[in-house]
Amino acid sequence: MRHYCAATITIASMTDLTAEFTVLGACPHDCPDTCSMVTTVKSGIAIKVQGNPAHPHTDGALCTKVSRYTERTYHPERILYPLKRTGPKGSGQFERVSWDNALSDIASRLGAIANRGPDSGQAILPYSYAGTMGLVQSESIAARFFNTLGASLLDRTICATAGGEGMTQTLGGKVGMRVEFFAESKLILIWGSNSIGSNLHFWRYAQVAKRNGAKLICIDPRRTETADKCHEH
User: Fold this and answer.
1) Per-residue confidence (pLDDT) for residue 233, from 0 to 100
2) pLDDT band, very low/low/confident/very high, at 127 (cuts 50, 70, 90)
3) Whole-structure pTM value
4) Most buried residue among 103, 160, 169, 226 by CB atoms closer than 10 A?
5) Domains, the chain, with CATH or none
């Protein structure tokens, strides 16, 4: 066996490009579920992505987004090249441009803003996060790039900062527990999370707790699917 990048494949399958084999890996998304994935490959093309049934937490299930990875990856309308808008916003008018032209255009526009005068770079508001958890786009280049431009300072984790601060104020720190322990809870407070859609493995244990008499309360300005399944919203 050969191991690399959280994947395991057979050496025999690497020499036979027409063979069908599976690759074990982990979901790359910034998600608390941290699912184990099984990808079926045939003739060098991924034909199926599914949850790993041998991984207790994943239990063979993936969210809708990840379970349709192959559909998005090989979709005929997937964008493969830079496109530049040629009409009004919303018109859907674009033309294909080269990577060099796209990068030069972006660089010249950002540079023009940053060079208008002292502190003019603060007109640039960086907004990004972990993406697919790669070192380049997640934690390496973005901060250096925007710092060089003199851009405004923005909390890196704008999507999770409020929740993290709430945990610190309430519990004294951003701490958690094994997701399986939720099945033993007597009260579960779901704050600003549509767990059915975005944290489905936690939701499974929440349902076990609910059947055992636990009370579920959802705090959310939206009436989500999760809110509908809780005792209080």
Assistant:
1) 95
2) confident
3) 0.70
4) 226
5) 2-73 (3.30.200.210), 79-115 (no CATH), 177-229 (no CATH)
